Amino acid sequence: MASRKFRLARRITFMLIFILVIYGGVIGFNRFMGAKILEAMASMPKPVASVSVATAQNQTWPDQVRAVGSLKADQGSVLTAQASGIITALHFKSGQTVKKGQILVQLNDNVERAQLAADQARLVNAKQEMQRQRQLYTRKATSQTTLQAAEATYRTAQAVVETDRAKLDNLQVRAPFDGHLGIRLVSLGQYVTPGTGLVDLQQWNPLRVEFSVPQRDLAKITVGNPLSLTVDGINNRTFSGRITAIGSAISTDTRTVTIQAEVQNADDALRPGMFGNVVARLAKQRQLVAIPSLAITYNTYGEYVYVVKDSGDGKIVEQRIVRSGGTRNGLVEITHGIKPGDVVVTAGQVNLYPKARVKVVPLPSGLDASPTPASGD
């Protein structure tokens, strides 16, 4: 019985040893093959990526401040009635261009005209009575008191006539300045009261641009600085203007100051209420290093570029973290990480990694990554 158990235990032991030997052999073989594959891959030449490049250059840029501005009419208001009455005539159409003093709306003035005629007749009588009393006074035929009373009556009649004319003027609504009318808000025969809106009138040329800048930029801006304005929807068009006023206080909520500028709009391409991108150009100029904006690559850690370096067997790239500043004419200012003369990759970054081998090829047709002098626009 004991010998049978011994033989069974020995058999199991041999089987376990056999299994371990087979398993160890498989593992060893796999490791051997993996090492051979890695050795073969290490001996293979690394792939060469095709890239386009540009050289970082020193640039002189006029200093500038960028902001989003809102366009407002230099003169603009909703015209309203100054008196109560029924509209008897409308002398304009919606969207019409009008001149200063042009009559736009006429209210019923029958009663006021009749009153004016009656008061004008009283004025004539008062004038005649005053002249008669003056003649009598020169002949000593009347007293000075009577003459003074006649003169006072005449002046009172004059004032009444002027009041009547003012009432008639209030029944007419005239354009207070040259401008463009909006949509008519009233109809013929409508009864209106003082303050009732009749039509919107806006002056389009020139227009005001209002924008805000941070308090750190306030010292850079002075009245008279030129600026340019571009507006979405009006392509390939830049409007010129000049700063005309600077706000008197910094907003405690936003820590910004409001700037006002005037923009010429001779062809009426702009409208009040539009917004656009404002670039205020300053007299001061800055020396900086610039590269094409195509060279900048972004990831979760920030901005970086690939810089081309010479190595023993060709060209390789170095990944370099950078900090960028303003942009202009397809260029970006680099405040840290790049120096003049560095060759940066502008196309083909997707295939790159640190120390990747590269060859330089021309930039694809239609793209221009060569730094050019900035115009300051």
How would you briefly describe this protein structure?
The chain has 377 residues and is of the alpha+beta class. The chain is built from three helices and 21 strands. The protein has a six-stranded antiparallel beta barrel with strand order 2-11-14-13-12-15.
Q: How many structurally independent domains? A: 5
CATH homologous superfamily label of the largest domain: Efflux pump adaptor protein, beta barrel domain
State the major sheet.
Answer: 6 strands, antiparallel, barrel
Strand order of the largest sheet: 2-11-14-13-12-15
Give a quick set of tags describing it.
377 residues, alpha+beta, conserved putative lor/sdh protein from methanococcus maripaludis s2 fold, Elongation Factor Tu (Ef-tu), domain 3, 5 domains, 6-stranded antiparallel barrel
Describe what this molecule looks like in 3D.
The protein is α+β, with helices and mostly antiparallel strands and 377 residues long. The chain folds into 5 domains: 44 residues; 87 residues, conserved putative lor/sdh protein from methanococcus maripaludis s2 fold, CATH 2.40.420.20; 93 residues, Efflux pump adaptor protein, beta barrel domain (Elongation Factor Tu (Ef-tu), domain 3); 53 residues, OB fold (Dihydrolipoamide Acetyltransferase, E2P) (Beta Barrel), CATH 2.40.50; 62 residues, Helix Hairpins (Orthogonal Bundle), CATH 1.10.287.470. The protein is 26% helix and 39% strand. It contains 3 helices and 21 strands. It has a 6-stranded antiparallel barrel. A 4-stranded antiparallel beta sheet has the order 3-10-8-5, with no helix packed on it. The protein is elongated, with a radius of gyration of 44 Å.
